[in-house]
Task: structure prediction
Amino acid sequence: MIVRVSGEGQFRLPDEDADRLNELDNRAVAAVEQGDETGFKELWSTMLELVASDGNVLDDDELVESDVILPPRDITFREAQGEFTGDGLIPD
Result:
């Protein structure tokens, strides 16, 4: 799975992490829908950590279509309310 973090680049994430990332995304959507800013920030941090720790950074000259595009690391809760809706960033 290729994951782009806006403003940071692309990462090749092992396929076995796709379900974990999707689960975190679904929980982040639920946190946003419940107005739980603290919960969202914790989940968002965990999502970014998963991508950074398990993913391999792609070279800038390697052109690969992203399977998932994550918002910038510094997304605000207000911005997240427009992004983390419905099926979330990773449709089931």
Observations:
- Residues 2-83 form one domain.
- The longest strand covers residues 2-5.
